[in-house]
Design a protein that fits this description.
The complex is a heterodimer of chains A (492) and B (387). Chain A has 492 residues and is of the alpha+beta class. Chain A has helices spanning 9-20, 32-36, 59-72, 124-131, 150-156, 163-166, 200-204, 238-250, 263-273, 293-309, 321-337, 357-371, 399-415, 434-437, 440-453, 468-471, 482-485; strands at 28-29, 52-54, 76-79, 96-99, 106-110, 115-118, 136-137, 173-179, 185-189, 213-220, 222-223, 227-235, 257-262, 283-291, 314-318, 344-347, 350-351, 375-380, 385-392. Helices cover 35% and strands 19% of the residues of chain A. In chain B, strand 5 (59-63) and strand 6 form a beta hairpin. The chains are: A alpha+beta (492), B alpha+beta (387). At the A-B interface, strand 9, helix 7, helix 8, helix 10 and helix 15 of A face strand 9, helix 6, strand 11, helix 7 and helix 8 of B.
Chain lengths: 492, 387
């Protein structure tokens, strides 16, 4: 994988001619430089130059592009903002990339029914910006929300820090217009979430672009809670922080978010943002509560008492919205900030049952010291979603060891009863680990569903499912995404 | 397993047993749980072997700390709630027929839900993993024991609402929520025409009602709003809710609240047995208008904030078709939920959606001979497809 190949000019020429029949010249990219900017997504170690990139302007043009691909039997890959972290938008050699960046209209903010109708290229954060004046917001908030698109969120079933209480993309999508692999346009889901027949919408969300291309989506909007409280608490050990989370849940409190950072992650974040973390603390929790004001206040008192009981060494209450934003900024900047304490790093995304957090962290630390590599931890503690950062030096020849450690961590999560991925997806990155989590029969049934949607396998092939070709080769070194270098996105 | 020969019924005792039964009985199969929805959706083609989940019951594993439970599909939800209740937990789900012993597998396969769907969604949102047996005997797992999980296709969703087609669900893994310390219900007498306005006022206030449900009754109708949370918190929110709804909206005593929700459940079940029951879903702002036009409807319940309603109509093809047609014209969804005995002429579904061909292709891929639930989704999945 990942060896850039030069595409055959004949494929490019034939396809380009067909696309140009209905797209303006500037919307059909065939030049080497133009194509190169689509060679990877946020997982930059995987690269492949496509034959053609097209930029349709509406659903009908997307369907027409897919029909051209279908006619020629050429694979195609849908692409939003390209911020994905698992190579889900990695092009296919001699294939077509269908960029949705021109479909970026907010079609409707329906205040009465609390929903938004969106084209796939709308940025996640722009939904809440548009709904905000009406007291509403869109709940799923991946850290890349300023620049990731709702179409990509649908493909990846994106989460974020607030999933524990509010759910994932799939819980907020009501209805979608989808272009299938034969170029037909269908509607999945409906205006209420009511179903007459199987939930095709549900299986499409999170299918990583392998079942079709979403060209329009209706999402639910929520009313902003009356009150929001945020605390940053330092703990004498990772164990104490983990136990605190357990006791919060046992006290029947469901926080809007519970995030944990270890000292290495805080050191990096503090160097980058200066959010007010205690770098010497072995672990810290960021806990956010929201709800009706009285109850929020009462639970907040309970919460700080639990923190104290577990020996919290500092409890900082972020009183104002500005202070709260600052704490979040540090948290969200943690990934990019790790670049300050290590020349290279790999971001992992795995899930364990929350009660096994301490155990998995101890095992990760052991595994790291066995191979002499440091691992920083930043994660969504409430739902057991870990983001270990494996720190290494490419120059010192540690790449392969780091890759191996990172994959072992994901597979360890499965061993502990969890999952290979909580929100970044499988894509090209983890397809080879899928047998650690699923039996051959499980994977075969998924492939049968896929063949029902796309019998010829033209829609984003080479993702999710392990193939000998994919799993026999190794990816290249991680390189920062240009948006990441610019500090616009973080890797989580 | 046990087999009865009168109506051929197989009652597997375990997952392996279920897989063997699917392999050994080569013809069509009809999955049966507690039988609380056996007349919902399409009429099954006669001659199928009944695959009963009556012995596939019980909790497989419950980890209170992770707030998840794995359970066999034939387990009645009321029984599971009792077990979970001992740990201060619950499945945040309250479809009316749960009280009548409905099984988790049945509630899941029929995409049922109750008033709490406003806050917690349906089982689609609460089930995080499943084990299913397909027509060729393949046993497949999807999802898992963690709430956050994006590895592989979410096959679990595909079985939700499949009405017993595609495969048989053997085991489910659910996410749990804490049992609220206190619950309170405020009731406002109001005709349907004004219910949505009041419901929106509740939604716009900060009280975060977990359920807002209108039901038709002898004196016109009433809007029930349920609050859940800590004792102090609920007391405070009841006061604020009553400020919103006005003095005519009393806080119900526990007994009155139970009676009110029981009346809601009875209305959902549909009243007189000779009438047909249809459940519909349309964009919430269109719901009142739709229901007001259906003058023959009785036992009407409406969730003004989610757009879901159930209603009882005369058991004639014309009356049922009229509902399906009106709902389809509004872009909504409708499903027949009770069919008086023998009335195979009543349409289960509205006009086929644009995704019908896709549904057929997926079904053909998972169950090429259409062994499971043949007829349940007719005519979207036509019954003529035998291999």
């Amino acid at each position: 994988m990942a060896t850039p190949t030069t595409t055959t000019s004949s494929t490019t020429g034939v396809l380009a001619a067909d696309f140009s029949a209905f797209l303006p010249k500037a919307s059909v990219i065939t030049d080497e430089v133009g194509l190169r900017s689509y060679e990877c997504d946020g997982l930059t170690g995987f690269r492949q130059v496509p034959a053609v990139v097209v930029l349709p302007r509406d659903a009908q043009e997307v369907a027409a592009c897919v029909r051209v691909c279908a006619r020629h039997g050429v694979p195609f890959v849908a692409r939003g903002a390209g911020t994905g972290l698992s190579g889900g938008a990695l092009p296919v050699a001699d294939g077509v990339v269908i960029s949705l960046q021109k479909l970026r209209r907010i079609l409707e903010i329906d205040v009465e029914n609390r929903r938004a109708v969106l084209e796939p290229g709308v940025f996640n954060l722009d939904i809440s910006r548009a709904a905000g004046p009406h007291g509403l917001y869109y709940a799923p908030d991946p850290s890349s929300q300023q620049v990731c698109t709702i179409g990509g969120n649908v493909a990846e079933n994106s989460g974020g820090a607030h999933c524990l209480k509010y759910g994932f993309t799939t819980n907020h999508v009501l209805e979608m217009e989808v272009v299938l692999a034969d170029g037909s346009l269908v509607t999945l889901g409906g205006p209420t979430g009511e179903q007459a027949g199987p939930d095709l919408r549900g299986v499409f969300v999170g299918s990583e672009g392998t079942l079709g291309i979403c060209t329009k989506v209706t999402v639910r909007l929520l009313q902003k809670a009356e009150a929001k409280r945020l605390v940053l608490a330092d703990f004498p050990s990772v164990q104490a922080a983990g136990d605190t989370v357990g006791d919060i849940v046992d006290a029947s409190i469901i926080p809007a978010a519970v995030e944990m950072m270890d000292s290495l992650a805080m050191e990096a974040a503090e160097a980058a943002v200066g959010a007010g973390y205690t770098v010497e603390a072995p672990a810290a929790l960021i806990i956010e509560l929201d709800g009706p004001a009285d109850e929020c206040d009462a639970q907040f008192e309970q919460l700080t008492a639990i923190c104290e009981r577990h020996g919290a060494t500092r409890i900082h209450v972020a009183e104002t919205a500005d202070e709260q934003a600052k704490v979040w900024k540090g948290r969200k900047a943690a990934f990019a900030a790790v670049g300050r304490i290590s020349p290279d790093y790999i971001v992992q995304d795995g899930v364990v049952p929350r009660t096994r957090l301490s155990e998995v962290l101890a095992r990760i630390a052991e595994m790291g010291s066995e191979v002499g590599l440091r691992v920083a931890n930043v994660f969504h503690a409430g739902d057991g979603n870990l983001h270990p950062l494996v720190l290494y030096s490419e120059a010192a020849g540690e790449h392969d060891q780091a890759e191996e450690l990172s994959s072992s961590i994901a597979e360890l999560c499965v061993e502990l009863g969890g999952s290979l991925s909580g929100e970044h997806g499988i894509g090209a990155d983890k397809a080879c680990s899928m047998p650690a989590m699923f039996s051959e029969d499980d994977l075969d049934v998924m492939k049968r569903v896929r063949s029902g949607f796309d019998a010829r396998g033209l829609c984003n092939p080479g993702k999710i499912f392990p193939t000998p070709r994919l799993c026999g080769e190794k990816p290249g070194k991680y390189q920062a995404h240009p948006l990441e270098e610019a500090g616009v996105i973080e890797r989580l | 397993m046990t087999t009865s020969s009168a109506t051929p019924t197989v009652t597997p005792q375990s997952l392996d047993d279920l897989r063997d039964a699917v392999r050994e009985h080569t013809g069509p199969l009809l999955v049966a749980g507690a039988g609380t929805a056996s007349d919902w959706a399409g009429t099954p083609e006669p001659g199928a072997t009944v695959l009963s989940t009556a012995s596939l019951t019980g909790v497989i594993s419950h980890n209170p700390g992770d707030m998840t439970v794995a359970v066999r599909a034939g387990t009645p939800l009321v029984e599971l709630q009792e077990i979970l209740g001992e740990h201060g937990q619950r499945v945040a789900f309250d479809a009316a027929r749960v009280e009548r012993g409905a099984t988790l597998g049945g509630l899941f396969a029929t995409a049922d839900s109750g008033p709490l769907a406003l806050t917690f969604g349906s089982l689609r949102d609460l089930v995080i993993g499943a084990t299913v047996v397909l027509a060729d005997g393949t046993v497949a797992h999807s999802g898992g024991h963690v709430i956050k999980n994006v590895a592989g296709y979410d096959l679990t969703k595909l079985l939700h609402g499949a009405q017993g087609t595609l495969g048989v669900v053997a085991e489910l893994i659910l996410r749990l929520h804490p049992t609220p310390e206190a619950t309170a219900t405020v009731s406002l007498p109001t005709p349907l025409a004004d219910a949505a306005t009041h419901a929106h006022a509740v939604a716009a206030s900060p009280v975060e009602a977990s359920a807002v449900q209108w039901l038709q009754d002898g004196s016109g109708g009433r809007l029930l709003a349920r609050l859940e949370g800590t004792r102090d918190g609920v007391d405070g929110r009841v006061a604020r809710l009553r400020e919103t709804l006005g003095a005519e909206a009393p806080l119900l005593s526990e007994a009155d609240a139970d009676a009110a929700w029981a009346a809601y459940g009875a209305a959902v079940d549909g009243g007189a047995q000779d009438r047909a029951v249809v459940r519909v879903g349309v964009t919430p702002s269109l719901l009142t208008g739709l229901l007001l036009e259906l003058a023959d409807a009785t036992e009407v319940t409406a969730a003004p904030l989610t757009g879901v309603a159930t209603l009882s109509v005369p058991a004639t093809a014309a009356a049922v078709d009229d509902v399906h047609r009106r709902v389809a014209a509004l872009g909504g969804t409708s499903l027949l939920r009770r069919r008086p005995p023998g009335r195979i002429d009543l349409a289960a579904l509205g006009p086929a959606p644009t995704s019908a061909a896709l549904l057929r292709a997926v079904a053909a891929s998972l169950d090429p001979d259409q062994r499971f639930g043949r007829g349940r989704l007719a005519p979207w999945l036509p019954t003529g497809v035998t291999a």
